[in-house]
Amino acid sequence: MVLGNGVFLTANEIQNKMNIPELVFINCCHLGVLSDPNEKDETAKSEFNKFAASLSRELIEMGVKAVVAAGWAVDDAAAMSFAEIFYDHLLRGYQFGDAIKAARAEIYEQHGDRTNTWAAYQCYGDPAYRLVANTGAGGHWEKRIVDIDEAIAEIDQITEKAKTASALNTKRLKDDLNNLLKELEKKDIEQSHSNWLNNARLLEALGRAFAEVFSFEEAAEYYELAIKNDKSSASIKAIEQSANCHIRLAVQRFELDPGLYTKSKAQIETQIESLTQLMTTLRETPERLSMVGSGYKRLAQITSSKPSNVCNKALEQMEDYYRQAWKKIPDKSPKDPYPLTNALAARTVLLLRLGDAQKVKEELPKLRNQKEQAQGFAEALQKVRPEDFWAAIGVTDLKLLGYLIDYLGHKERLSEQVHKELLEDYQKAWKQYGSQRELNSVIEHYAFLVAVLQDCSPKDEVCGVLQKLHNELRSMSEALD
What we know:
481 residues, three-stranded mixed β-sheet, 19 helices
């Protein structure tokens, strides 16, 4: 975009900002001069829209949620009207697509007889994006939902958006979900025969959606309602995810109030038992075994300040189930090393906690060999999925594991350079490919490491580096609020 004589604004300048904006509205005539205005080449004159499209595409690819750009010269009065109507609707909670439609319709009505400015604005991004959290003028769900399948589709849309949402958008999606829920409750009152909120498929969809916006209490509640539904039509996935949500909720409650330790520990153990019974009834799968491993990981996290044998036993179980999950993954290329990485992490931190030099000496060679094996799988996976957050993070997590194993073997400090290198890797992966949901998983892993290593030895500084990384990752997340 031409700002002045020799002064331009391109996608590069915006990308170099610390925080990528969610909305970009470029309300100017031409986004560049591709030809002399007096030139008779009509083909060249008609390419302004392509220039607008190019800039808009770059903005969307770098993470901007919604872009409006003028494809050709706009009339000043019509452009002013368009902007006023567009922003008025956005600030009242309308969706991006609806705000654009309202602005176009209004300026077509007002100025359509003398200018085609109403059609000049090219729009890119999610049509359901909202600038503010409230939905509609009164904060109510805007769409008229006529049947359960439509309600489930709306809930599933929120779930999918949450998987790639920023922190701010996650809050907005949670508001959308709560407003939609109020609408469904209202329908149940108005149409007592419908009883939508007793439908297992809808309840399960609500469980999925609330889990994706980190509302684990609500997620667990709706999964439970789906499972206990009289018609028994909930999926096996609902049982698995219910256990996962209950476990994560137990950790959340313990972190807010350590006095809930006994209750939280019992809740995690109950859910682990539920998952193991499910595998006995059906069959073991890598995902189910990993979920049990994750349960023991969180059990180790909350028991870390209790008698060491409680936490250590949980770490042994964590390692065992993640190793079983790894063995269950079919031999294919590339093979995701996630279960093996977690098994090795459990073993490494357990050895650090035990402080048994002879045991470390015996196990260190095997630990290093398996780490190199996992590293090879992670690097192969990253080559196949070059733009995948989890593939990028897999390599970084193994880099961290390598540093912890070296520390275990030689008791060398984790230097500031190690801290800087790991942080840069996480920042790069998250900035390029990640979402709030994905960043949260990294934060949870560091919370686990800090918890289980904090009391190893007052002289050991490894936990200080991990704590610093954990704090900085949380700051990255909170900066998006």
